[in-house]
Amino acid sequence: MFFTSVSRDTGTSISRTRTVSRAQPTPVKLRKLLEGVSLWLLVALFLSLHPVYAEATERGEETAGALYFGEPGSRGEQATLLSADYQVTVSGLIAETRLRQSFSNAGQNWREAIYVFPLPEQASVYSLKMRAGERVIEGEIQTRQEAATQYETAKAESRQAATVAQERPNLFTTRLANIPPGEEITVEIRYQQAVRYQSGEFELRLPTTLTPRYMPGAPQVADAPDNWRQGWAMPTTQVADADAISPFTVLPDDLPPGSHQASISLELYTGLPIASVLSPSHSLQSTWDGDTVRVTPTEGAVPMNRDMIVRWLPVRGEAPSAAVFHERWQGEDYLLALLVPGVERGGRLARELVFVIDTSGSMAGESIRQAQAALMRGLDTLGPDDTFNIIQFSHSARSLFPSAHPASAPNLNQAQAYVRGLTADGGTEMAPALARALAAGKERSGRVRQVVFITDGAVGNEAALFQQIEQELGESRLFTVGIGAAPNLHFMREAARFGRGTYTAITDLTTMAKPLEDLFGKMQAPVLTDLSVAWPDDIQSEALPQRPGDLFLGEPLIQVVRGQAAEGKLVMSGRLAGGQNWQQSLDLTSAAPGQGLHRYWARQKINGLLDRSVVTKAAGESPSGTRTEDQVTELGLKYQLVTPYTSFVAVDKTPRREADEPLDAEPVPTLLPKGSAPAMLRYPQTATGAPALMMTGALGGLLCGLLALVRRRTRT
User: Fold this and answer.
1) Which of 104, 133, 188, 365 is the S-S candidate for 184 at Cβ 3.0 to 4.6 Å?
2) For 5-14, 130-139, 437-446, 577-586, which range has the lowest pLDDT when averaged over its residues?
3) Euclidean distance between CA atoms 626 and 64, whole angstroms
4) Hey, where are the domains in the chain?
5) Strands 322-329 and 592-593, how do they pair?
6) What is the CA radius of gyration of the chain?
């Protein structure tokens, strides 16, 4: 080092500079010193980590396969065991399901189980029973607030109680209070759903788990409820109930043996002979008894890690071209009519086709491969008169081209290479991708503009996205393709409906050819436009949907009406793709007996009211939320249905738990959907070697600091 010394003599100011050499370590000596210190730190760290890892290993061996809940650092108790039993009866176009959820308390304390679970996107829950030993308690429909109050009161008074509430049209929550140690309580739910029919094939889907949803927006820490830890997400500015729709997801090996298994049995009676029954999701065993077919999974109880899909085909020549069903409930008539237009596909139209593909983290694994294959198939359908573009999105949206390009061979080759290079990672910000895809569709371009949206729909802000589609759709048509073992079909269906298109679900790569062929066949041109339906008694206001959309190839027109007797003729008319007028009538006196039509009508009415609220908000008009809530609540109470504003609650009258005995609240997890990447797991607090990992992190930080110090000293 060099220092400057200044000395002053009397009467003279003289500056003298001299060099002072001090004995200082050289860079080599300093490096050796730090290496010695680091070595001793590593030895000390090893000695401290050894008992930590030993404890973690011992704890892991002791509890292998068991899931534990509790605060960080606490052990907690073994999770409640869950099993489910589905008994499904299909009659005509309506499927009735009795779902039993059994919760077994294998721990030492009394439990409250909180279970967030999926149901079909159009499910109508109309019954609840709680079974505890020999006691059976019937549930009652109440307003959501009243049901919650009764449940919390019973829980505090040590009485057993159960409630079922709707979080989304396809997502519900069961709460079950005061499960005794070593005992089992069963919640029995009954719901109905419509059977999907298109292209001569019937389909029924039973969801058993859900893909973890992305929650956009900033966390609302200050406003978070005390019990937000029931889910892995906190409320956000865009998803206020994120904590209520984010159940923990785990792997089968994380649970005790036998937990999260489902027994499933279906009885199919459609009123016509069935030729074959198949499933793209499970191996099935089918038994024929006349026109009735009984169906069960070949393996018996199945893991609750994917949707079960059952499809059946009628005997050749027996596929319905028209059908009508009749039910009389509480003195009122309900009719459901189905009509399949027997028309040929129209001429091919020039199109601008925009593919939007989800490349967020929830698509990692099998889902992104399915999405890539679907997009590749879509590119193959482009003709020389078409234009196209590709938009991918995760935390942001990116386009292949600045605007739609002609479907030339060089452009298609570039697109195929682009698709093959896609990977899945990041968040699911759909809004920017929708805005980019729909922006160019607000003006007529001379081509039919179609947007194909390929995603698993794993988002929590569905309503905001529906509003966006309603507001920005313009002249576009939106078609959705659901990907994965457990896609959010509520989003897929409603997004397509608001987008005046249709939706398709892909289960796996081996069975995707036919649904994609059907989808892209429909997109060539709608079969019927400008549809109108005239009932004999002129009660169009009670017919739902009131304004049917366009019919695509293979799709039936289904309408349900209240107050119409099974008399006279129903007349349907429209315009063919070539411009010709079309008309067909249906004799109502031939109506077959139907079940559950009143609930189906009520569900359609409720959906229409909620849709109107979405459209009103999208248009920027004054909200009529209170009026909508009152109307939906009235329908829910009258028809005994769970809605966003009504819930079922069942309460035992006799206290079971002593006042001084603790009650532990436990969120029951769901299984990670089959084929999803492990990064999608959302674990609760578990018995793991977390202290060891924290110590390892501290080691990394310490070594990084030492390395930085060495480099600084060396440069100096």
Assistant:
1) 104
2) 5-14
3) 51
4) 1-62, 81-316+643-670, 322-344+528-639, 351-522
5) parallel
6) 31
Per-residue model confidence (pLDDT) at position 541:
78
Question: Residue 152: how many CA atoms within 13 Å on its side-chain side?
Answer: 6
How crowded is residue 126: how many other Cβ atoms within 10 Å of its Cβ?
22
Architecture of domain 351-522: 3-Layer(aba) Sandwich (3.40)
Q: What is the mean pLDDT of the chain?
A: 84
Euclidean distance between CA atoms 101 and 114, whole angstroms = 12
pLDDT for 490 equals 95
3-state DSSP assignment of residue 286: strand
Interstrand relation of 528-534 and 405-406 (parallel, antiparallel or unpaired): unpaired
Q: How far is CA 614 from CA 248, 426, 496, 607, 628, in A?
A: 29, 28, 15, 11, 11
The mean pLDDT value for 270-285 works out to: 92
* Four-way CATH pick for 81-316+643-670: 2.160.20, 2.60.40, 3.10.450, 1.10.10: 2.60.40
State how far the Cα of 476 lies from the Cα of 434, in Å rounded to an integer. Answer: 11
pLDDT digits (tens, 9 = 90+) for 283-301: 999 999 988 999 999 999 9
Q: For the range 541-544, what are the long-range contacts, defined as Cβ-Cβ under 8 Å and sequence gap of 24 or more?
A: 544/601, 544/604, 544/605, 544/608
In 3-state terms, what secondary structure has residue 524?
Answer: coil
412: left (phi over 0), alpha (psi -120 to 50) or beta: alpha
- Whether the per-residue pLDDT at 570 is higher than 60: the answer is yes
* pLDDT score, position 485: 92
Q: pLDDT at residue 183 above 90?
A: yes
Helices (H) and strands (E) in the chain, counts: 11, 38
Render pLDDT for 234-256 as a digit per residue (tens, 0 to 9): 899 999 999 999 999 999 988 98
Strands 557-562 and 332-339 come out as antiparallel
- DSSP string covering 193-229: EEPEEETTEEEEEE----PPPB--S-B-TTT--TTGG
